[in-house]
Amino acid sequence: EVQLVESGGGLVQPGGSLRLSCAASGFTVSNNYMSWVRQAPGKGLEWVSVIYSGGDTYSADSVKGRFTISRDNPKNTLYLQMNSLRAADTAVYYCARDIGHSAFDTWGQGTLVTVSS
Amino acid sequence: DIQMTQSPSSLSASVGDRVTITCRASQTITRYLNWYQQKPGKAPKLLIYAASSLQSGVPSRFSGSGFGTDFTLTINSLQPEDFATYYCQQSYSTLWTFGQGTKVEIK
């Protein structure tokens, strides 16, 4: 069964850091494009970052220079390193697999990140 | 960035109704348009990709159409489990963007 399980969310102070993990099963992370998508409380979806199978990465302007997407191939796990966190980064963070056409067919359950003092 | 605008933002409908949701892109995205359904507290679910291709396992009452800047998601014969929020997403440029969502509520 294809599955994604996120972890690492929690409460962090403004300016702090957090690393999210997304463990995959049933497929190989490094063979797919993988993204992080977030959703602020009561708001819509916002794409955050992508890592291509070849290793190239791209991020939304709102997180560029602060967030870094990466993967550990032996662990079949995707990561999102988040630095210099702001209140506006408070959201549920989902990892998602791209099936091609940059459409996300598999999503994790989400992990909540709360940035507050 | 490409802006995606959905209409309406919300609608009320009855079981058995035909529902249409529109998504407009700020520039042409050819057929790079996907649709998702999200229920409260759950992750989004892919319904339609490449404007009109039905994702495996999605009921055939869902359909998508459009090209360029204007797209439509249609739900034929709305079912109780279809009450949810629907999002469009452009995948034309790497800085992918979503519409603001359309909430489908029970009349």
Amount of beta strand of chain A: over 45%
Task: Report low-confidence residues of chain A grouped into runs of 5 or more.
Answer: none
Spatial extent as radius of gyration of chain A? 13 Å
- What series of H and E elements makes up the topology of chain B? EEEEEEEEEEE
Helix content of chain B: under 10%
Q: What kind of sheet is the major sheet of chain B? A: 7 strands, mixed
Secondary structure tally, helices of chain A: 0
Order of helices and strands of chain A: EEEEEEEEEEE
Q: Strand tally of chain B, please?
A: 11
Cα distance spanning the termini of chain B: 36 Å
**What is the CA-based Rg of chain B, rounded?**
13 Å
**What structural category characterises the helix and strand content of chain B?**
mainly beta
**What characterizes the major β-sheet of chain A?**
7 strands, mixed
The shape of chain B is globular
Task: Round the mean pLDDT of chain B to the nearest integer and report it.
Answer: 97
Summarize it.
Chain A is an all-beta fold.
Describe this structure in words.
The complex is a heterodimer of chains A (117) and B (107). The model of chain A has no long low-confidence stretch (mean pLDDT 97). Chain A is built from no helices and 11 strands. Chain A has strands at 3-7, 10-12, 18-25, 33-39, 45-51, 57-59, 67-72, 77-82, 91-98, 104-107, 111-115. Chain B is mainly β. Chain B is 0% helix and 50% strand. In chain B, the strands form 2 sheets. In chain B, strands 2, 4, 5, 6, 9, 10 and 11 form a 7-stranded mixed sheet that branches. The mean pLDDT of chain B is 97. At the A-B interface, β5 and β10 of A face β4, β5 and β10 of B.
Which features characterize this protein?
heterodimer, A: 117 residues, mainly beta, seven-stranded mixed β-sheet, four-stranded antiparallel β-sheet, B: 107 residues, 11 strands, 0% helix
Question: What does the secondary structure layout of this molecule look like, with pairings?
Answer:
The complex is a heterodimer of chains A (117) and B (107).
Chain A: E1 3-7, E2 10-12, E3 18-25, E4 33-39, E5 45-51, E6 57-59, E7 67-72, E8 77-82, E9 91-98, E10 104-107, E11 111-115
Parallel strand pairs in A: 2-11
Antiparallel strand pairs in A: 1-3, 3-8, 4-5, 4-9, 5-6, 7-8, 9-10, 9-11
Chain B: E1 4-7, E2 10-13, E3 19-25, E4 33-38, E5 45-49, E6 53-54, E7 62-67, E8 70-75, E9 85-90, E10 97-98, E11 102-106
Parallel strand pairs in B: 2-11
Antiparallel strand pairs in B: 1-3, 3-8, 4-5, 4-9, 5-6, 7-8, 9-10, 9-11
